[in-house]
Amino acid sequence: MGSDDKIVDVNFESLLRIFTVPEAPDSTLGNIEQKLSQNLNEFLREHIVAEEKPLSEIEKDFLNSAIPETPTFVSEHTQHLLDTVVSHSVHTSAPSFIGHMTSALPYFLMPLSKIMIALNQNLVKIETSKAFTPLERQVLGMLHRLIYQQGDDFYQHWMHSAEHSLGAFCSGGTIANITALWVARNNALKADGDFQGVGKEGLYHAMMHYGYKGMAVLVSERGHYSLKKAADILGIGQQNLIAVKTDSQNRICPIALEETICHLKIQNIKPFAIIGVAGTTETGSIDPLDKIADIAEREECHFHVDAAWGGATLMSNNHRYLLKGIERADSVTIDAHKQMYIPMGAGMVLFKNPSAMTSIEHHAEYILRKGSKDLGAHTLEGSRSGMAMLVYSSMHIISRPGYELLIDQSIEKAKFFANLIEQQQDFELISKPELCILTYRYVPLKTKKALAIASAKEKEELHQLLNELTKFIQKKQRENGRSFVSRTRLTPEKWGRMETNVFRVVLANPLTDKGILHSVIEEQRKIAKTSPIVLPKIETLTSTILQL
Amino acid sequence: MGSDDKIVDVNFESLLRIFTVPEAPDSTLGNIEQKLSQNLNEFLREHIVAEEKPLSEIEKDFLNSAIPETPTFVSEHTQHLLDTVVSHSVHTSAPSFIGHMTSALPYFLMPLSKIMIALNQNLVKIETSKAFTPLERQVLGMLHRLIYQQGDDFYQHWMHSAEHSLGAFCSGGTIANITALWVARNNALKADGDFQGVGKEGLYHAMMHYGYKGMAVLVSERGHYSLKKAADILGIGQQNLIAVKTDSQNRICPIALEETICHLKIQNIKPFAIIGVAGTTETGSIDPLDKIADIAEREECHFHVDAAWGGATLMSNNHRYLLKGIERADSVTIDAHKQMYIPMGAGMVLFKNPSAMTSIEHHAEYILRKGSKDLGAHTLEGSRSGMAMLVYSSMHIISRPGYELLIDQSIEKAKFFANLIEQQQDFELISKPELCILTYRYVPLKTKKALAIASAKEKEELHQLLNELTKFIQKKQRENGRSFVSRTRLTPEKWGRMETNVFRVVLANPLTDKGILHSVIEEQRKIAKTSPIVLPKIETLTSTILQL
């Protein structure tokens, strides 16, 4: 073992050593790194999703709540990590892992991430981030321009302005959405006469001053669950996050939206923000943003677009039109760790107006002094890593046309898969893909026929059983570990808004090919037939209905 | 150039290639990585803080707001990063960078970080994090035990319980503090009769129901600025974050705390949380936690301890006593990216009661279903990276006694530096170190004498000038780039609470030796003497006062 591998005895000299950068490239740590890289590459090349082992078994490796009293060799610990952690983690990059938005990464990000980790910059302030500060401002500028398409003059003026901010880099879409609604709330309840604004005086005084009985945020019933957290934490209350009806394509109904606003105003509840979803988490649907913008404008509401998932579509000149109206939003959330293929932890919120974030600006004596360009004056978070660098690099290495191709092929692949499902007699497409997300379920052919003629009561009963079957198939497939689709519950118009369990597929990984898609449904069909209890029940009820 | 280096033409085959893990270890990307590592190691070995270049100059490299229309070679872009980003970033790991809490990292974290990046797990749910979920729960358990010292039974029962949570892993201390106060607010305004709780109904209804005129959080005037953000976002209002007087050692005055609570209650404002600071950001002072615990208990307030910086002291059996009383806190914030030497982005909040977080629990249809062990049900953030793994690894490789040594030597070094400053005739120690933070300033010897006999007006005048001088020295030293101390503004009792600019030093880097500390004050003394305007003014005024 080399001298940099272990704190052999816990003494200060050994500790100093672990903070010392090795001189020789063939140091012990260098060798460990090489071994580790090879092992990780093997893992990443494997095309299975997860080695099945029950969680309760895995937990046995993580039971000790005491911090170790003796140090471990780095080499020994690395092996321990490979055995207990790596081998039991999920291959989110496997081409058959098509159940969630977490997908493969471009391989060049592995070496480049080293820069981020090694430099350990803290972007809250320039004193600990120097070049990373203008870099992050540029990345925010790029995303702002992608959405709002202002001219060079605009960005020259605002991008690096100390007193302004085009947005905030966040750990993820949840913080981005909360930030947007925080800004919206504070602007809606701003200082006025004697009242110093909600930020200073709090919500109770704000309501008293403005004479409202409540503050409401409106979003379609397909809105992301993070918005509930936002309504809770902001003091608005979850019940004032109003879920507006969607149409058969899971898009918000503008008429229902207008009616809801009307209804709120009668109760003296102030609808201060309307959220359009550009890519719902469950179905990938895009709200009619232009129509929402009209309503928001008329009602003088903040218009926020949650494009955490779908925002990257703007990179494609071929599909940009799907998000028409987004350029009218007051704020937009985009997660680079979703369709921009950046490692976890790269959310962003952009504001049309460079002065919007003034309502949440804050300062401190030892950093974030007025007039400084410290990014921390406009972020909910404090200390933050230099994650923006990886967005910057991917923008340069992949470039916009590269992203366009990635987006386009994902959408085409989703269309292909939707067609494939529609061709199967024993599958049912539940939501067509607008982007690269779709939902479907398995329904035996005869049961389809039975559903067509069943009574309301029988229909409901069959539906319940199919829900159980969907759950059974999805769980079993996950346990088999060859592929993974996720599961959610929708209320399709076609089925009279009955709660319907569905498979949910996200086709973001460029390495997912048509063969894999074929085998995913093949496996699901096979699993369905092994269902020991539910399938027989379905078959019996089907026969009864069809009078076989 | 190898085939994995560039998307030569933007076509789908080239794009597939960048998502493909190279087979050969000597691939182009492999070579790029090696070159990069060497360059980073050189950077990390350099013992300067920053190459001075004005920000306006650096910004010139980050002006383009358009996303590139053509792809760049990975090798070319890497060189670009080395030239424009790495060379102009801050050496936060330099032993003479003693101005902020961001410090050096143990080198073994470089290879181990690869695991985190490459696996790209998402800890919001088990389906995208598998073994990382019990791992994170174990890390939270270890920290919980470090603070609350419960027995094995306790952790066996709660650590992996689906319905409970010992805390939350966060992007940083700010989110941790906000989470603690969110939980406290929701527990203080919980469901009661017809009222469904503040989370559901919002603050306005909550206040109406409970009949309060306001909700207050109390913390010493040295509390972290993130608490202001928390009061703002939670709807409490910044003015209801009440700053309580501190004593001459920058610790909260318990009597003043009690008086403030009394005063609030008379106004029908509910003091729902008291915060003790265990390591103030500016002076490293620790509040009398036991006394605060007594008061919080009596007043039935949530007792939160912000130990973002100082919490790691609990690892040292020799200094643990300094935080006596922390085990009585309802919640505690600890940042592993501070004194636990983990890369940026590893905050944690721990709750004494495994059921405390129920008040902010949330679910969704596609993940976080009831009964699942998904970590996301109890976090403010949604998607999150596997950062907990690096804490886990450091706990094992360094071990508790290793951390103890690191903490102990930091504190000893701070004491040494404080003594050194007191030995200088022309420096003044402003705050003694309790942990490894101290503050001081430069005051010419004669001016010290003048201050002792000056009139109130002269004293104030001199003080103003010294403030300017401190600012001048700190800026100049930063620009020189050899070392870095930060600057803040305190109101020392000794100087009648006059606002006093001070140098602030954080001695966390184990590689910072006594020689460096000598040279830091040597350089400051030299810089002071080059002050073209302020020093002469100070000297003139000094002479007048001393009647020379």
UniProtKB/TrEMBL annotation, chains A, B:
Its cofactor is pyridoxal 5'-phosphate. InterPro entries: Asp_decarboxylase_pyridox, PyrdxlP-dep_de-COase, PyrdxlP-dep_Trfase, PyrdxlP-dep_Trfase_major, PyrdxlP-dep_Trfase_small. Belongs to the group II decarboxylase family. The keyword Transport does not apply. One of its GO terms (cellular component) is cytoplasm. It comes from Vibrio casei. NCBIfam families: NOD_PanD_pyr. Transmembrane segments: none annotated. This is Putative pyridoxal-dependent aspartate 1-decarboxylase. The modification N6-(pyridoxal phosphate)lysine is found at residue 338. GO terms for molecular function: carboxy-lyase activity; pyridoxal phosphate binding. Pfam families: Pyridoxal_deC. It comes from the Bacteria. GO terms for biological process: carboxylic acid metabolic process. Keywords: Decarboxylase, Lyase, Pyridoxal phosphate.
